[in-house]
Amino acid sequence: MPDKDRFLNEENPFEAMMSRFDRAAQLLDLEPGLYKVLRHPEKQVIVSVPVMMDNGEVEVYTGYRVLYNTSRGPAKGGIRFDMQVNLDEVQALAAWMTWKCAVVNLPFGGAKGGVICDPLKMSAGELERLTRRYTAAIIHTLGPDSDVPAPDVNTNERVMAWIMDTYSMHVRHTVTAVVTGKPVEMGGSLGRREATGRGCMIVTKEALKHLGMKVKGTTIAVQGFGNVGSVAADLLAKEGCVIRGISDRTGAYWNARGIDIPAALKYVKEHKTLEGFKGGDPISNEELLTGDVDVLLPAALENVITSKNAAKIRARIICEGANGPTTAGADSILAEKEIFVIPDILANAGGVTVSYFEWVQDRGGYFWSEESVNDRLNDIMTRSFGDVLKLSTQHKVDMRTAAYMLAISRVATVHRLRGIYA
C-alpha cells in the first residue's frame, strides 16, 4: 500500500491497531485461521441507557462494551465517559488491552467500555443513575471470572464503587472482584492510583540504561498532567530527571532549567488545571511535543504524534503513557530518526498490572502493603521490558513490533492449546 494511502486513515484507532497487528502476525507467520480469530472481537455490546435527569426529563445515552479476547482469562478493561466515545475506539482499546495483558503476562483477556456523554455537565446524581443503568444493561458480561472493568477517561473510584454495588445487588451478595480501581476501603489496592505513572517511570529508566544514558540530568517533557503524567513526572523528578515541559488541556508550560513538579502538583490540586501556572513559560502543546528533551512522555489522548509532526520530534526516547498517542503513519518516521519508542502496550501496563494485583487480593481476601505492591510491579515491568527488548534485538524490529509479536504469540499459543469448540 502506498504511503499516502496508508496515512489517509491513520487516526482511526482500530485501523491503526490492526496495521501493527498485521505486521507482527506476518513476522510470526501466524496461521490463517488463527489470524482470522485474533483479528475479530469476541463480543460487541451496544446498549441504550435511559437516565432520569435532575430536571425531570429523560435522556437516552449510548453505551458500549467490547470483549476482544478472553482466551487467557477474564476480560479486563476500563470504562470511559466521554463525548468522543465510538465503537471503533472501544474496539481498538479492547484489542490494546488484550495485547497489553499478554505483554506483561497477566492471566487476563482484553475489554473496553464507554458511554457517550459529557460528565462535566452532569450532576453527581445523574452520573450515578447513568452508571447504574449502564451497569445493569451490560451485567450479562460482567463478573470476576468473565469481565472486570476499571476506571478510564472521566471515571474514577466512585464510579467503580457504583458498578460494584449495582452488580452486587443483582447477584445478592458483595462481589469486590467484579471491578478494580475501587476505593481502598472497599477492596481497592494500595498503589493503584500511581501504578500507570510508576510503570512509565520504571520502563523509562530501563530504556535509559539500555541506551547508556544516565538517569540523573535526563531532560523530559510530559504531555498530559493528569493522573498518569503527573505521577510519572513526580517520580522521574525524584529520580533526578529534569522535567522541562508539562501540559494539560488548558495549555503547556516550559522551563529549560526544570519545572518545580511539587509546585505544579500543588497548583493543580488548588486550581484543578495548569491554567495560569507561573512555573514556566506558556507554549503550545505542539511546541512541547517537539521540544529539546531526551525523553518525550505523551500521557493524554490518542493520535498526538502523527505523520505531520513526527519528523519534528527531537526526543531520543518516547514513552507512551497514553493509549495510542502515536499513529501508525508516524511509526516509520520515528524509526528512520532512530527514536527509541516504548510502546503503549508495554509503557502504560503498570495500571492493569496493579489492577491484577487488586483482583488477586479481592479473590484471596488478603491485602498487601504498598511497598509489596510496588516491588511486584517493578519486577513485572522490568522483566516485561527485557522480554520485549530481547525479541526486538533477535528479530531486528522496533520495540512496538516486538511487543505486538510477544503479545500475539502468547495469545495464539493459548488458542492452539485450547482448540476451537465445535
What do you see in this structure?
With 422 residues, the chain is an alpha/beta fold. It has two domains: 41-184, Rossmann fold (3-Layer(aba) Sandwich), CATH 3.40.50.10860; 195-347, Rossmann fold, CATH 3.40.50. It has 15 helices and twelve strands. It has helices spanning 3-6, 13-28, 32-38, 87-103, 124-137, 157-171, 195-210, 227-238, 261-271, 285-289, 328-336, 344-347, 350-364, 370-395, 399-418, and strands at residues 43-52, 58-69, 75-81, 109-115, 147-151, 219-223, 242-248, 251-254, 281-283, 295-298, 317-319, 340-342. The strands form two sheets. The protein has a seven-stranded mixed beta sheet with strand order 9-8-7-6-10-11-12. The protein has a five-stranded mixed beta sheet with strand order 1-2-4-3-5. The model is unreliable at 1-8 (pLDDT under 50).
Mean pLDDT: 95
Secondary-structure element string: HHHEEEHEHEHHEHEEHEHEEHEHHHH
CATH architecture of the largest domain: 3-Layer(aba) Sandwich
Rg calc: 21 Å
Count of beta strands: 12
| Principal-axis shape | globular
Unreliable parts: 1-8
Task: Summarize, please.
The protein is of the alpha/beta class and 422 residues long.
Compile the SSE list and pairings:
Blueprint: H1 3-6, H2 13-28, H3 32-38, E1 43-52, E2 58-69, E3 75-81, H4 87-103, E4 109-115, H5 124-137, E5 147-151, H6 157-171, H7 195-210, E6 219-223, H8 227-238, E7 242-248, E8 251-254, H9 261-271, E9 281-283, H10 285-289, E10 295-298, E11 317-319, H11 328-336, E12 340-342, H12 344-347, H13 350-364, H14 370-395, H15 399-418
Parallel strand pairs: 3-4, 3-5, 6-7, 6-10, 10-11, 11-12
Antiparallel strand pairs: 1-2, 2-4, 7-8, 8-9
